[in-house]
Write a structure and sequence with these properties.
Layout lengths: L4 E2 H8 L4 H9 L3 E3 L2 E2 L5 E2 L5 E3 L2 E2 L10 E6 L15 H5 L6 E2 L8 E7 L2 H8 L7 E7 L5 H9 L2 E2 L4 E2 L4 E6 L2 E6 L6 H8 L4 E9 L2 E2 L8 E3 L2 H15 L4
């Protein structure tokens, strides 16, 4: 007897989308199983007919593993839904079905990983492990020592009713700083800066864990090297086992 799996996990394993993206599609009523609208908790197997936005999903056995580093331009939306204007998948036009690892605000630019490996996405997005993300930020006024202290110590965000975790921050110019976060709250840096009395004019993500943006041109992508991929998996395994 074929074992059925939760639909979000099944789609993730097929490289269709991440579990989170599958949940969003389910909530929006965009996934059909055997002609019926699927709901959260629906279980399926390879005998079921699955469609997303009316487009049938056909499982493949020969899907190559894909992991790309992409320099997202401003204005591009980090979603796998092709119906969303200026979505990242349509922008890339990659020959295999891939989706973003996490999100980067529409108004932000910089490094975002693209993959077809659902379990890899889930491991990276588990925020309790504190994966590092590094940003270069420009604001609309001069940066002071008190600003750096306030940002580094954690900032209470009233809209989210949460205080951010302490972070590492360094001034790199009169109105520019570099910050390393280990959490990914919605528009976190912009909200933190607003509370601290300034507004972000440019935000670039330059690193995710051990993978750096480097000199990758805006709008371009590259394959993550085998060395980078092995180190990424090593860090994920170490942190998953409770390491630092």
């Amino acid at each position: 007897m074929i074992e059925k799996k939760r639909l979000n996990k099944y789609l993730s394993e097929l490289g269709i989308c991440s579990r989170r993206e599958a949940d969003r599609l389910l909530e929006a009523g965009k996934i059909q199983v055997n002609g019926e609208t699927a709901v959260m908790g629906t279980k399926v197997d390879e005998t079921d007919r699955i469609a997303i936005d009316g487009r049938e999903i056909r499982p493949r056995k020969d899907i190559p593993e894909v992991l790309l580093a992409f320099h997202k331009p401003r204005g591009i939306v980090c979603t796998a839904s092709r119906k969303e204007a200026n979505n990242i998948v349509s922008y890339l036009q990659y020959p295999e079905r891939i989706y973003p690892v996490g999100r980067l605000d529409k108004d932000s630019e910089g490094l975002i990983l693209m993959t077809n490996q659902g379990e890899l996405v889930n491991k990276i997005l588990r925020s309790r492990y504190g994966h590092e993300k590094e940003y270069l930020v420009t604001v609309d006024r001069a940066i002071t020592e008190s600003f750096l202290r306030q940002m580094s110590g954690g900032v209470y965000l009233p809209e989210l009713q949460v205080k951010t975790k302490p972070c590492r921050i360094e001034k790199t110019g009169q109105r520019q700083f570099c910050v390393i976060l280990t959490q990914g709250l919605n528009r976190q840096i912009r909200r933190m800066c607003h509370v601290c009395g300034c507004e972000v004019t440019r935000l670039i993500r330059v690193r995710v864990m051990n993978i750096s943006l480097g000199d990758l041109p805006c709008g371009a992508y590259r394959e993550v090297t085998p060395k980078e991929y092995e180190e990424l998996k090593r860090q994920l395994q170490k942190q998953g086992e409770g390491g630092a």
